[in-house]
Design brief:
It is built from 6 helices and 6 strands. The protein is α/β, with parallel strands linked by helices and about 200 residues long.
């Protein structure tokens, strides 16, 4: 019916090229043209430097950075023929500045930020919008970081929603992101706008 939303869950391994190619083909076949894609992968590894392994570094890079590349490439493959679409990457403060114990996670988030910036510049002339949104805090809830909760460093989701009410016209992408992941955090849009 008019105004209704159609939703369906799809499963894929963001680190596997064949899985991501199949995912985008399946979504388009089942749901129709993809207008917005959100890459929001977390599962962060936070460890002291001397406890950090090569496997930790590699898993963070594969999931966040390589996964971001595969997401963007496959989204572009479907959006370019239509000359329209939006690809949104969720970043984090660890990808913008160094944070103790965030070596694996922060370096991967910095990498996906670079992927987003490169794709924005390459795809903008073709009508594809690419955004990188940096999450700047921890949102309260059952999955919130225990250290942030202990120090009062969390934000109430209801208070966040109220603080954003004046931004409704510009936050349609963020609302889609919030739907996709309950435990995002506070964000400050870092949307790349390429001059025409």
């Amino acid at each position: 019916s008019k105004g209704s939303v159609k939703a369906k869950a799809f499963k894929a391994d963001v680190t596997d090229e064949a899985s991501m190619t199949a995912l985008f083909a399946d979504v388009e076949k089942s749901m129709g043209p993809i207008d917005v894609v959100v890459h929001n992968v977390n599962g962060r590894v936070v460890k002291d430097l001397l406890d950090l392994s090569v496997a930790d570094m590699e898993s963070q890079w594969r999931t966040i950075c390589l996964g971001g590349f595969l997401t963007g490439r496959e989204a572009a493959r479907h959006m370019l023929p239509r000359g329209a679409g939006s690809i949104v990457y969720i970043g984090g403060r660890g990808g913008r500045r160094g944070i103790a114990k965030f070596t694996a996670f922060g370096s991967a988030k910095a990498g996906v930020r670079s992927v987003a910036e490169c794709l924005a510049r390459e795809l903008a002339p073709s009508g594809i919008h690419v955004a990188h949104i940096a999450v700047e805090a921890t949102i309260g809830g059952p999955r919130a970081n225990p250290e942030a909760v202990a120090t009062g460093g969390v934000v109430d989701p209801a208070a966040l929603a109220v603080s954003l009410t004046g931004e409704r016209g510009t936050l349609w992408v963020l609302l889609a992101v919030a739907t996709a992941n309950v435990a995002l955090g506070i964000w400050r849009p870092r949307i790349l706008r390429i001059p025409r």
